[in-house]
Design brief:
Blueprint (H helix, E strand, L loop, with lengths): L13 H13 L5 H19 L5 E10 L5 H10 L4 E9 L4 E10 L1 H12 L4 E9 L5
Antiparallel strand pairs: 1-3, 1-4, 2-3
GO molecular function, one term: nickel cation binding
Function: Transcriptional regulator.
Family: Belongs to the transcriptional regulatory CopG/NikR family.
């Protein structure tokens, strides 16, 4: 990663600059530059997910009723049957009936998305959300 910084100018209409500054303040950014850098990194990650040329990382969050018959075994079986690498799995008991799992997955975008849909569609899963990320050298 290079530490060289290059300055460039961006022209924006006043109202768009106002929207930008409002977002910078509401999200706690120290500067416009930090916000713009994050927007660019986010787009680079989305581009990696749109391509099958390299592995990416996903974070799948699911909550479910652990009393649903066979559900826990189905979750485990699906994780073992896919062409992805489960890097980490964290299991938390929310209350007597509900569990939360966070599954960090590395693999091809289509395989991660397929696993996410299959896990989210299991009977007893109440919530499922895939957060897309990837290595970003920028």
């Amino acid at each position: 990663m290079s530490t060289d910084i290059i300055r460039f100018t961006v022209s924006l209409p006043v109202n768009l600059l106002g929207e930008l500054d409002d977002r910078i303040i509401s999200k706690g950014y120290a500067s416009r530059s930090e916000f713009v850098r994050d927007l660019i990194r986010e787009q680079l990650i989305l581009d990696k997910w749109a391509s099958e040329s390299e592995e990416v990382v996903g974070v799948l969050t699911i909550s479910y009723d652990h009393h649903q018959q066979g559900l826990v075994q189905n979750i485990i079986d699906l994780q073992h049957s896919r062409l992805v690498h489960i890097l980490c799995n964290t299991h938390v008991h929310l209350n007597h009936n509900n569990c939360l799992e966070v599954i960090i997955i590395r693999g091809r975008p289509s395989e991660i998305e397929k696993l996410s849909l299959e896990l989210g569609g299991l009977k007893g899963v109440k919530f499922s959300k895939l957060t897309r990320t990837a290595g970003c050298d920028a």
